[in-house]
Write a structure and sequence with these properties.
22 strands, 6-stranded antiparallel sheet, flat, 667 residues, 16 helices
């Protein structure tokens, strides 16, 4: 045999052996993956059963027949299923609660040692909720002649009902397809081995060394070492293959870095946005930010400036990738810092601009809109730094908010000294504001035609009338329908604010000892009505109003102070014990002046109001610490007022009535 033939045979042998090794390695990996997938399937089914039980527990508080049928209907592979076993410390411990055929049978006996072992494990662990593990055993009491077969199970403890949820399946059923592949693989390997033996001859190790190195490096790459390279410097086909493979690895490394950068930027961008809009009376808010196929720089924020003021920030950073995500972080930090002093929108943008003009790299800038909603006045005060202006929907018409007439409009970060202008609009009940970035209006269809502002405004007009539904999903659906794809090259950020009108609860707190201006004085009856939130501090409004009215009626100063104390205690008692500090339940205070008296009624619509105590309170024992101070407020009220009455009226709620009479020494 010639040397050339021997070399050819040696190469064939090495290739054949390499193929065998790769096939075996791939098969073993696939086998392990398949086994893990089988276990994951059992775990997923058990998690499903747990979730179903939890949902029914939250809805009904107990298991139902519908739940049992839903779990019992689940099948895993061929003969696999889910069961529920009673694990309560009663005679029913080990009883099958859910089973396709044997419901009611008790498995807590020596015939089922694997079940007893599972029960003991859970009990020894202290029955923690979601306690779970895998187990394996051989079926000894199965049906249809499958005794002796190996079973794989996954169980989880459901504490609310003291159940053990267990998913099981026969190993043979789970790996049936894998066995077919295994047999065929073994046959293929055997054929290759026989062929290799037939053509085997002396191998020239020096000639085959590059191929062995190629195989070794391939395995390293398969194991995740993407920095591996082929150190082969030959001019033959093996050398060309090595150089091509090295180029492929370099491209793969580059793409991996880009992917990692993309994921980091996307995560940074999403983590900086608010999780949920704030909940303010008189205002409905919704927001959504859809990341693009490339990381953009959209951002938004809600900054609460007071009980009835909210700053809304919407912006877009130039550029894409990690750098834009970092700029978003810097922009939000600068704007939030600038808003700490409850400044006006133009001042907030100006302060943020001065900071960003120093921090940002050359060529980077931030377009931003800053608006402050004053719910007490029904007004939006805003300033704009190169961002798209919001759309106002009012009385069936969608219009663009006008730009501030004075001041600059440059984006943040371009130059240090910029004076932004401001403008305001008065809002009416039913008005809707739509804040957005240019990502949605710039979406393209298949003909490279942009979605455009006009189409977006028409979409706003179409969906704004859906008062009971979220507006944003409809706006996004219209844009995606136009573009023909859910993928977009730029971020899409949308915020919708529906103004429901100035809430009746919004009152200015008293200043410098004056009664609140929001009180309503009924001239025809001489009564003063006040509605306040169930929140500490608002009792001062009722206290001050009662004192002002008592002074007007001519009560002496010490009696006015008694009234202030009694009204404050009554309001605090109603806020804390009647409405339980629930701001959704309001507190009503009615002041009724008469010629010789002043009556104050405190009305709460909560539950659990502490009624008049049934025993005499000892002030000395409470002061000395011998008794709890509970009830001291009611004691003070009764001692300070001439008449105190507690009633529960179905149409009103709990009513505390205080009356202070004029004495002979008062005019």
């Amino acid at each position: 045999m010639k040397i050339r033939s021997k070399l050819l045979l040696a190469v064939l042998l090495e290739i054949a052996l390499t193929i065998v090794i790769v096939i075996l390695w791939a098969y073993q990996g696939a086998q392990n993956e398949l086994e893990q997938l089988a276990r994951d399937l059992l775990r997923a089914q058990t998690d499903f059963a747990y979730a179903v039980c939890d949902r029914y527990n939250q809805r009904y508080g107990h298991p139902t027949d519908e739940l049992k049928e839903q779990i019992s209907a689940v099948r895993i592979a061929i003969d696999g299923y889910i069961v529920a076993i009673d694990n309560s410390d009663t005679a029913d411990k080990g009883k099958l609660i859910i089973h396709p055929t044997d419901t009611g049978e008790n498995l807590n006996n020596p015939r089922f040692p694997h079940i007893q072992k599972i029960i003991n494990r859970i009990d020894q662990a202290g029955k923690p909720d979601r306690y779970s593990a895998y187990d394996e055993y051989h079926q000894e009491t199965g049906a249809r002649g499958r005794q002796g077969e190996r079973k794989i199970v996954y169980y989880m403890y459901y504490k609310p009902w003291d159940w053990i949820l267990l998913s099981s399946a026969y190993e043979r059923d789970l790996f049936q397809s894998a066995d077919v592949v295994r047999h065929r693989t073994v046959e293929a390997i055997a054929a290759v081995a026989i062929l290799t033996v037939i053509i085997m001859t002396l191998s020239i190790r020096k000639i085959l060394a590059p191929l062995r190195q190629l195989n070794q490096t391939s395995q390293e790459v398969a194991n995740g070492r993407l920095d591996a390279t082929f150190a082969i410097d030959s001019q033959d086909e093996i050398g060309e293959l090595a150089r091509s493979f090295n180029k492929m690895l370099q491209s793969l490394q580059h793409n991996l870095r880009i992917t990692q950068e993309f994921e980091i930027a996307r995560r940074m961008q999403m983590e900086m946005l608010p999780e949920t809009p704030p909940n303010l009376p008189g205002l409905q808010l919704e927001a959504a930010s859809l990341p693009a196929t490339e990381v953009g720089g959209d951002f938004y924020d809600f900054i609460t400036l007071g009980p009835h003021q909210l700053a809304i920030i919407v912006g877009d950073v130039s550029g894409k990738g990690v750098s834009s995500a970092m700029v978003v972080s810097a922009a939000l930090s600068a704007i939030r810092f600038a808003a700490e002093g409850h400044k006006a929108p133009a001042e907030i943008l100006g302060l943020a601009n001065r900071r960003l003009s120093v921090d940002l790299q050359r060529g980077m800038f931030v377009a931003a809109f800053c608006g402050i909603l004053d719910l007490a006045r029904g007004r939006l005060l805003y300033a704009n730094a190169g961002q798209t202006l919001p759309i106002l929907y009012r009385n069936g018409e969608a219009m663009l908010l006008p730009s501030p007439e004075e001041g600059d409009r440059f984006p943040l970060g371009i130059r240090r000294q910029i004076d932004y202008g401001e403008r305001h609009i008065d809002l009416a009940a039913g008005d809707m504001l739509v804040f957005y970035t240019d990502g949605i209006v710039d979406m393209m269809n298949g003909e490279s035609e942009p979605y455009s502002f006009d189409r977006f405004r028409a979409s706003v007009h179409r969906h704004a009338q859906e008062l009971n539904n979220s507006v944003i999903p409809g706006l996004i659906k219209d844009a995606e329908k136009f573009s023909g794809s859910r993928d977009h090259s730029d971020d899409i950020t949308l915020l919708v604010a529906r103004f429901e009108g100035v809430p009746p609860a919004v009152r200015d707190e008293p200043e410098n000892g004056k009664a609140p201006a929001a009180l309503v004085f009924a001239e025809n009856r001489g009564e003063v009505r006040l509605s306040i939130p169930s929140q500490h501090g608002y009792e001062k409004m009722a206290m001050q109003a009662a004192a002002e009215l008592a002074q007007m009626l001519g009560f002496r100063a010490e009696r006015v102070e008694d009234l202030r104390t009694a009204v404050a205690e009554a309001c605090l008692n109603a806020i804390e014990h009647g409405n339980k500090l629930n701001q959704m339940n309001r507190l009503d205070v009615l002041l009724k002046p008469a010629s010789n008296s002043l009556t104050v009624q405190v009305i709460d619509n909560g539950s659990g109001f502490a009624l008049k105590p049934q025993h005499e309170i000892s002030l000395e024992r409470k002061i000395s610490g011998e008794e709890s101070t509970r009830g001291l407020g009611l004691f003070l009220i009764e001692k300070l007022m001439d008449h105190v009455e507690y009633k529960v009226l179905p149409e009103l709620g709990h009513v505390t009535t205080l009356r202070m009479d004029k004495t002979d020494f008062e005019p």
